[in-house]
Amino acid sequence: MSFICLLLSVFVMVFAKDDGLTGRKSTIPVLDLQKYYNEETKEEFLDEVRDALHKVGFFAIKNSGVNQEVLNNLYGSLETFFAFDRDTKMKVSAAFCCAQRGYTGFGDTETAKGSSACDIKEFYMMGRTVSADDHKRYNLLVNQWPEFMDFEKPAVAFYNHLEEYSELFQEIFSLALYQEKDFLHKICKNGDTSCRMIHYPNIETKEKIWAGAHTDIDLFTILPRATKEGLEVMDDQGKWHPVFIKEDAMIINGGDFLEAFSNGYFKSSMHRVKRPKKMDSDRYSCVHFVHPRSEARIYPIGEWVKKTGGLQKYTVATRWELLMERLADMGTCTDSMLKELGECRLMERLMEVGRESKDAMQRIVKAGYGSDEVKQRLVELDN
């Protein structure tokens, strides 16, 4: 076979033999993208995608055709950009738009959901330039480009290249959900898909964690190879497994929204970035987060509710509502967002399916926008 598919039990992650992808044992399934283009193997490939998303939430794609020159050019520009002093980099600060466009420095980064420790990283965010005509809440999402170096050209080239894969996997995941192939494309067109370019410094820390354990609040995430290892995925037993891929491969992981569409059948797995034991330089990575439009509805698809036992495990909400809830949980939500979050009653809907965030509810209440139901739920959680 051209690859070895990992067979994993629901509760235990089993290591696969090396398939020539990394030279080491793989902890995530490895899929051959060329099988999707062959009508004789296309359905087999889709079954492998479903199996990987169900059991692991992550898989590697080989024979992907990722343009290494585009990636190398971007990494070279990242090293140059992040080498500037903080004051210079802050000229393109992302603080005014909740860290969604521009630079976020050390100490200004978010904390992972449910964590109090700040991530050890700095990053630069870019995406499609979103105008007020697209959505009233997007009027601040305009890319910021530094005047002190040429960063726009390599970043845009990388973004456009990854967008090709974004559209491809929107089709693949639509079919994996047993929907029409344009199901996800319809809700992602003109959405806020963004690219985060991250610098993890080679410094010793007590916990050695660069980015805390979290899931991705998006449809899915595309990650070409980073300059160093460090990505780890948690299995159903709470054990962490390092992820390895070859230069011409990429990692795909399902996000919270894909999990919700499948009523939990597809996993949005916990993952983190940990500093490897043997480290001789900084780590750079570029992550492509694929998002629906702000007003797109995220909901469990009826067929998947039946497939998973008949109980709806996720509420119906817009992408914007769910994003505000995550920002509130991380402590980066603006007062106007907290107000809107309280008024839309998302927390009450999340309470109905047991998915409410205590931290988000506390911040809503503290800002003066919490309902009596939210306040009562907080009392119950404290007792």
What does this structure look like?
The protein is of the alpha+beta class and 383 residues long. 33% of the residues lie in helices and 16% in strands. The protein has 12 helices and 14 strands. Helix 8 packs across helix 9. It is globular, with a radius of gyration of 20 Å.
Strand count, sense and barrel status of the largest sheet are: 8 strands, mixed
Roughly what percent helix?
25-40%
- What gap, in angstroms, lies between the N and C termini? 56 Å
Radius of gyration: 20 Å
Topology record:
Elements: E1 30-32, H1 42-55, E2 58-62, H2 68-82, H3 86-89, E3 102-104, E4 122-127, H4 152-176, H5 183-188, E5 194-200, E6 209-214, E7 220-224, E8 231-234, E9 240-242, E10 250-254, H6 256-261, E11 271-274, E12 283-290, E13 297-298, H7 302-307, E14 317-318, H8 319-330, H9 335-344, H10 346-352, H11 358-366, H12 372-382
Parallel strand pairs: 1-2
Antiparallel strand pairs: 2-10, 3-4, 4-5, 5-12, 6-11, 7-10, 7-12, 8-9, 8-11, 13-14
Briefly say what this structure is:
With 383 residues, the chain is an alpha+beta fold. It has helices at 42-55, 68-82, 86-89, 152-176, 183-188, 256-261, 302-307, 319-330, 335-344, 346-352, 358-366, 372-382; strands at 30-32, 58-62, 102-104, 122-127, 194-200, 209-214, 220-224, 231-234, 240-242, 250-254, 271-274, 283-290, 297-298, 317-318.
